[in-house]
Amino acid sequence: MITYRPSAKFDQQAAIILIDKNQLAKKKFSFKNEDLEEQIHCLSQSNQFTADEGQVFPLLLGKRIHLLVGVGAKKE
Questions:
Q1: CA distances from residue 56 to 1, 2, 66, 68, 76 in whole angstroms, order as listed
Q2: Given this model, what pLDDT does residue 13 score?
Q3: In this model, does residue 21 exceed pLDDT 70?
Q4: 14: which residues sit within 8 A by CB, 6+ positions away?
Q5: Residue 40: CB partners within 8 Å, gap ≥ 6?
Q6: CA separation for the pair 2, 64 (Å, rounded)
Q7: Looking at the DSSP assignment, which residues form a beta bridge with residue 16?
Q8: Residue 68 in contact with residue 18, Cβ under 8 Å?
């Protein structure tokens, strides 16, 4: 059965990961999870995730949801 919702809704907890363009380019993140780092790298190479300000990308790894949030260029 297919059900439709008027707006997107998360039914599970998600880890929110803030990523700026510099982190994405250098592949330097504030976490140590090789699987997650590899998935983010693949998304970056395919231009699906660019870390532009306000960009949101849900990522499912195993049974965990990670919500990648782009914050744009790092400001001094």
A1: 28, 25, 10, 6, 23
A2: 85
A3: yes
A4: 58, 64, 65, 66, 67
A5: 19, 24, 29, 49, 59, 68
A6: 23
A7: 67
A8: no
pTM: 0.79
HEC string for the chain: CCCCCCCCCCCCCEEEEEECHHHHHHCCCCCCCHHHHHHHHHHHHCCCCCCCCCCEEEEEECCEEEEEEECCCCCC
Tell me the two tokens of residue 15. 């880890």
Distance CA 32, CA 50 (A): 20
Residue % of the chain over a pLDDT of 70 = 96
- Decide: 46 and 64 in contact? Cβ < 8 Å: no
